[in-house]
Amino acid sequence: METIENKELIGERAEYFAKDRKYSKVIFRDGESPLKHASNISVEASSFEYKYPMWNTDNTVVKNSIFHELGKSGLWYVKNMTIEDTVIHAPKEFRRSSGITLNNVNFTNAAETLWTCDNIRIKNVQAKNGDYFAMNSCNFYAENLTLDGNYFLDGGKNIEIHNSVLNSKDAFWNCENVTVYDSTINGEYLGWYSKNLRFVNCHIISDQGLCYIDGLTMENCTVEDTVLAFEYSTNLSVEITGRIDSIKNPCGGVIKASEIGTLILNPRRCNPADTRIDSDIIHKILTEDPNPNE
């Protein structure tokens, strides 16, 4: 493999269609698409300072490098890319790509990143300002992900997440086949309009979360500041350790909780007999919606 080392590569398509090359301590600057259509390459200790650095690449590895802010939209239509120990300041990275592995990666502006991608594995990743992170992506596996950004994985399918912290309003909307283990999820309207969501040993903080879901499983979960949960959700198998502040009009299944603040069962919305409620303490039961416009 040819090695290019300690160079500044300047100009548009500086290494267009590069193959079987290693780049070490290289600065890519002042030119679009320097590695477009590259294949079988590795990059280490290098920096990308301008737009579209690695479109349509195949079988690439990037280590100990930096993607600067002007390198936005830099990783589109890629196949089989691994990025490790790298800082990415640029938003809108990865579109319509597959076979993505990210280890020890810090996204400082993760807005609109990983859109419509397939076969994603990420570990020890921080994603800040990550609105719409991984929208419409599938076969997504994450471990030790810290995400700050709304609308996480909207439209995603076949998702597995472990030991993560997700601060995200409207996370997991329109999703299918999601399992989350040992994680904290903080955000309003969690999981609406989704199918087959499972939370195991998770801590959830969500105003009006977990509604409009078909197939929701919660195993040994705790909740905090969670109100008006499970509205119009069906096929429920919910086990909550501790208190939930309020539950509103669930439409089928089983809900177990140590304590329920307010239970709203309006027969004009859902048949109360379709849901079994098992709780040691229920402080208040209502048969009318106290705030029907919510």
Written account of the structure:
The protein is mainly β and 294 residues long. The protein has a domain at 91-286. 0% of the residues lie in helices and 54% in strands. It contains no helices and 20 strands. It has a 20-stranded parallel sheet that branches.
Mean pLDDT: 96
User: Given the C-alpha coordinates, what overall shape results?
Assistant: elongated
Q: Which spans of ≥5 residues are poorly predicted at pLDDT below 50?
A: none
Assembly state: single chain
Key traits:
about 290 residues; mainly beta; about 0% helix
Q: How are the elements arranged and paired?
A:
Blueprint: E1 2-10, E2 19-29, E3 39-44, E4 47-48, E5 58-63, E6 66-67, E7 79-88, E8 98-107, E9 118-127, E10 138-148, E11 157-162, E12 165-167, E13 176-181, E14 184-186, E15 195-200, E16 203-207, E17 214-227, E18 234-248, E19 253-264, E20 275-286
Parallel strand pairs: 1-2, 2-3, 2-4, 3-5, 4-6, 5-7, 6-7, 7-8, 8-9, 9-10, 10-11, 10-12, 11-13, 12-14, 13-15, 14-16, 15-17, 16-17, 17-18, 18-19, 19-20
Briefly, what is this?
This protein is mainly beta and 294 residues long. The chain contains no helices and 20 strands. It has a domain at 91-286.
